[in-house]
Every structure is written in C-alpha cells, then in structure tokens.
Amino acid sequence: MGQNLAEKIISAHLLSGDMAPGSEIGLKIDQTLTQDATGTMAYLEFEAIGIPRVKTEKSVAYIDHNTLQSGFENADDHKYTQTVAKKIGVDFSRPGNGICHQVHLERYGVPGKTLIGSDSHTPTGGGIGMLAIGAGGLDVAVAMGGGAYYIPMPRVIKVELTGALRPCVSAKDIILAVLRELSVKGGVGAVIEYAGEGVATLSVPERATITNMGAELGATTSIFPSDEITRQFLAAQGREGDFTPLAPDADARYDRVLTVDLGALEPLAACPHSPDNVKPVGELGGIPVDQVCIGSCTNSSLYDMLKVARILKGKTVHPNVSLTISPGSKQVFTMLAENGALADMIAAGARVLECACGPCIGMGQSPKSGGVSLRTFNRNFEGRSGTADAQVYLVSPETAAWSALQGVISDPTEIGDLGGIEMPARFLVNDNLLVAPAAPEEAGAVEVVRGPNIKPYPKTEPLCDHLKKEVVLKVGDNITTDHIMPAGAKVLPYRSNVPKISEFCFTACDPEFPARCKEKQGGIIVGGQNYGQGSSREHAALAPLYLGVKAVIAQSFARIHKANLVNAGILPLEFADAADYEALSLGDELEIVGLIDALKEGGRLTVKNNTRGTQFAVRAELSERQVEMLLCGGLLDYTKKMSER
Ligand code: SF4
After folding, report:
1. What is the longest distance spanned by two Cα atoms in the chain?
2. How close are the terminal C-alpha atoms of the chain, in Å?
3. How far apart are CA 367 and CA 377, in angstroms?
4. In angstroms, rounded to a whole number, what is the distance separating the alpha carbons of residues 472 and 310?
5. pLDDT tens, 411-429?
6. Which CATH architecture has domain 467-644?
7. Which of 261, 397, 412, 574 has the most CB within a 10 Å radius?
C-alpha cells in the first residue's frame, strides 16, 4: 500500500510507535520555533532541563507578539530571549523582522522536514511541505534538547482541490469553506492533506494561508505537496538548494476525502464568534463596518499586500472606517516600499503598523464597544480583540480592503478582475535582523540577562494516589485558551511571570476564580466539549498549575491543551457519560481513590461526589509515557529523571 504525504514524513522521522491510528508516536524534530509570548517560558524550561546547547538542525526565537513596550516587562523578556538564544544555539529574529510563521516560511522552511513551534499556527509551514505542528513550550524545550515529540498517530483527511479560483476569491475563502464543512472540531486527531489539480494554481503563501488556518479545524497539522511552485518560491528566496519534491503515492490511502471546487467558491466570512460560523459575504452585505485590520500570519504575504494595495490605489478609506495594515515581515514591508504599493496604501488612508502580530493578539487596535471589525486574521473568539462585545468577522484581504472603502461589508467580486499581480522572480533578501547564536566555544562567556519580570517555572508535585478536592470552576463547551488565559496588552507582559499572570486566569468567565483557588488551595475544573480549544499557550495550563488545580474533568479536550495539562502535571479526565456533567456544581467535593493503579491499568476511574452522595465514571485517555509524566509531576521533571538514567 502506498503512503500519503503525512505518512511519508512521519515514517522518515519515526522514533517510536507503529503508526497505528490513534496510538502514540514519537517523532524526531528537525526544527523548532518560538515566539516571545510563549518563548520565554520555553527557554526557562530548556534551561531547567539542564542541556547546554540545542540539538536540532535549526531553532529560531521570534519576537513578534508583544512589541508595544508599554512597560519594562516585555523589554525584560526580549533581552532574556536574545541572550539565552545566543548562549544555547538559537537564531534570534529581532522585533521588526516580522511574524514568526511568515518569516519562517521565507527564510527557514524546508519541504519534508519536521517543525514544532510554541504557537498553534506553526502548521503554516505545511504550505511549503513541512510537517509543522503547534506544541506547548515544554514540548519545544524537550525537542530542542534532542528529545522526541509525541502525538497520537493522526488520521489523514484528503482535501481534493479542483478547478481554479475566480477573480477576488482567494485562498482564505478556501479554508473558510473547509471550516464550514468540517467545523472547529472536524480536524481533531487528523492531518489535512491537500491534493488535486487546484494545488498547482496556488502559490506557497496562498497554501500557507490554508495550512495556517487549519489550526482552527483542531487539526494536528495541514500539508501541501512540494512541487514546481515550491521550488520557485525557494528560488525566489535564494534557497533553491532547500527544495525537495514531495508527493503522495498514487495508491495512497486516506481516512476521508473532501472535494472543493475552487471555481464554485464565493467570498466567505467567519461571523462572530467562531471561525466555523461561515457565511457568504454576499449574504452579509450592508452591515456597517467600524474597523478593518489586514495582516496576521494568515494574510500578510507580499501577494496579499499587493492585492490590497491594488484595491486601495487612488481611493480613500470610508470616513467611518479605521483601516490598519500590518505587513507580515520586513521582507514584505521593504518590497512594498520599493515598488510603490506602500505609498498607495498610505495615500488611501491606511494606518500602516509594524510587521508584528499587533491587533491579532489584542496588542492595540481594539475596536470600539460593540464595534464591527473585519479582519484577515484566523481567530474571532469573543474578547480576543481586546473588546469584549466587539463583532469580529474573518475575511480575505480582498473582502477587507473593498469593505474598508465601502464602509459596509461588501463582496469584492463587485470589483471584477483585479488584473494580474506580478510576483517578483527574486525577493529582496536581507537577513540583518536575524542574529546568529554564539559559536559553541564562545557560548560559555555569554551572560543571560534576567530582569525582574523573569520568574522560574512553577513548582510541580507528583500526582498523588488519593485526590479529594472541590470543584473550583464549572464552564461550558468550547472554552478557549483565551478564556483560560487571556492575551492582550494588560496580560501579555507577564508570560514569563506565572505568579503574576495567574491573577488573570479565567477572569473573563469568573473574576473570583484565582482568589477561590488560593482560598481552597486548588481544586478541580469541570468543562464541557472541546475544552482548551484555540492556541498552544501553555500558560493556560501553567496558571492553573500555579493556582493548585489538580485535575480537569471535561466532556472532551482540544489536543494541544490536553498535552499541555499533562506536561504541567494536571490530570485530564473525560466523562464516560457526558450527561454526568450536568449533575456537578461549583463547590462539590470530588474524591478519587486508587488513582495511580487505575491510571496504569487502562485509566477507568470512579469519582465520588461527596457533597451529593453520588458517583460517576471517568476515563483518562493517556499513554504509558503520559502516566509516567504525571507520576513525576509533569514533563519537566520526567525529562530530568529520564536524562539522569
Ligand atoms: Fe501572531 Fe495572530 Fe499569528 Fe498568533 S495568530 S502568530 S498572534 S499573527
């Protein structure tokens, strides 16, 4: 039987496991990336493991999330990251160089390689044929130290692209169509593999838009073949030597096949407040718009920006609209400046921001109360913009730019043909904001600078056999990592300071949660379906760890968050009968005895509700390795123990 693309890369990197779907596999990781909001903790964890230099082929630390510098905190973080990267052998991408995924695609991505990143949109690298997966910071730290990265062997869903896009319908509309079909849970446990004649009609950045937003499907990752288009992209980056052709075997098997006819697609929008709440833009026409934000790792390539500039050229942004544009990288920004497109944007009234995440992570440009914001980003969860009641729609660059001119949500196919956008055969390559690490023989002399915002990894405890704790929080379905650990300008500066950031944990759902946890000395969280969806941020596990949370009992978990809970030494349990969720209340005292044996013997457990005199069944879907980790107190202690053997 032939192999699909995912199986080919996995089998070439397999360190443990037999590739049976759902069973745990260990992968050799070639490259890692971090961004500043998760990276400081990842490097603190790497230091705590005690390995002096990274063992990966390439590891890169990006500064892109927190660039406001509104206090000393993130300046402390940046200095720490810069100095620790120099010491341990990691490239450092300075603030101003661009968004991690855009820069990584341009300067580091290599078809057929494995990449994990402490950012859930790491699958952007699938656009260039990498097996690129978002992971917790601790997983990245372990991989930097040469350890395997473990995931359940994914199912592989093939998305067959037929035909070609019509003018002003774009790659963003393709992934929105897939999200409409599969939903935010449809990719869980799966790799989404793109194939078909439509693939050749898409450039690498367009493919990367699609794989980037595959994260919103809950997918392990998404991937495109590496073909002549990939070769041309690498050649334009002066990296043709990194090209390898990659394609599935003709008789490859897939778990499911979905077909998308590109020619039949129309402009789409993900409506508030979920990326899968997708409707045709034509049906939304006439909704007044307050703000339009163009950029983010989803839509900030040169191609995206040139299309936007073409639409804006010679026009003026509607008086009721604030339009911001953030180019994805210094390379894109420079090329826009060189070819005059930047002048067209500025002349039209766009507010051009630096090449960073910016509004996407709530770092500035929050909409007005109840405001309508059209964004080319990938997430529109409630409150992510920094305004709790904002109405955020996710759209293509064409829809965003055209609507910014009209003042209402507008279908860009009204424009007709934009005309050919000529892409240069050679990009302007200038890596002067990428700082190489010290040579191994000089690393000892590098001083790692730790300002007062840099606090150590929180204290962990091995799992105990007898758990008796109160329910300190009960939440519903689709709780995101933004609910658990908000982002935004007030909170982001404390990502390297877990005691401080814990004061914000779950406060969007229940402002009393941190104080209650402290008073009760921790407890158990109860959740509904898809608990922990969204980003890879391990602070959504580290803050509960610091507050003393011992277990989360949910109807189901999002993949990365569940792994992060285990990494932090918090036990994730699933209701055997989802209906038992209803019978639990805040303050109920829950008790589990014989925990350790039950975990080792298949993970079937009984939870007594002492407050109500009832009991219910739960299961721990954990590998032997994960059980061992919990018995050590989490991945950090487990890794130290293994390296001492
Ligand atoms: Fe940055 Fe937004 Fe992309 Fe996250 S999703 S990496 S915050 S641009």
Report:
1. 72
2. 40
3. 14
4. 53
5. 999 999 898 898 999 999 9
6. Alpha-Beta Barrel (3.20)
7. 397
CATH superfamily for 5-264 is: Aconitase, domain 3 (3.30.499.10)
CA distance 164 to 638: 50
Nearest-CA residue for ligand 1 atom 7 is: 361
Q: Does the beta carbon of 296 lie inside 6 Å of ligand 1?
A: yes
Common-topology check for domains 5-264 and 268-413: yes
Contact 567, 629 (CB under 8 A): yes
Examine the residue annotation and report whether 256 is marked as an active-site residue of this protein: no
The encoded tokens of residue 155 equal 């199912």
* Residue carrying structure tokens 């500039």: 309
CB atoms within 10 A of CB 473: 24
The reply to whether ligand 1 has any atom less than 6 angstroms from the CB of 357 is yes
For residue 292, the CA-to-ligand 1 centroid distance in Å is 16
Atom of ligand 1 nearest to the CA of 100: 6
Question: Residues 162-187, buried b or exposed e (16+ Cβ, 10 A)?
Answer: eeebbebbbbbbbbbbbbbebbbbbb
* Percentage of the chain lying above the pLDDT 90 cut: 91
Ligand 1 centroid, distance to 603 Cα (angstroms): 36
Decide if 609 contacts 526 (C-beta within 8 A): no
Topology annotation, domain 268-413: Aconitase; domain 3 (3.30.499)
What one-letter code names the amino acid at 111? P
Residue 385 CA to ligand 1 center (angstroms) comes to 12
pLDDT tens track for 436-454: 999 999 999 999 999 999 9
Rounded to an integer, what distance in angstroms lies between the CA atom of residue 572 and that of residue 319? 50
How far apart (Å, rounded) are the C-alpha atoms in residues 113 and 126? Answer: 10
Distance 610 CA to ligand 1 centre (A): 44
DSSP one-letter code for 3: -
| Binding site membership of 297 for ligand 1 (Cβ less than 6 Å) | yes
Return the sign of the alpha-carbon dihedral for residues 596, 599, 601, 603: positive
Tokens encoding 414: 């009204």
Interface predicted TM-score (ipTM) over 0.90: yes
Element (H, E) at 281: helix 281-284
Active site residue 588: no
Backbone angles phi, psi at 188, to 5 degrees: -60, 130
Which ligand 1 atom minimizes the distance to the CA of 35? 6
Is 432 within 8 Å of 326 (Cβ atoms)?
Answer: no
Give the three-state DSSP class for 348: helix
**Does the Cβ of 99 fall within 6 Å of ligand 1?**
yes
The residue whose CA has the least distance to atom 6 of ligand 1 is 297
* Residue 64 appears among annotated catalytic residues: yes
Query: DSSP string of 241-263?
Result: GG---B---TTB--SEEEEEEGG
pLDDT at 295: 98
- The answer on pLDDT for 643 being more than 80 is no
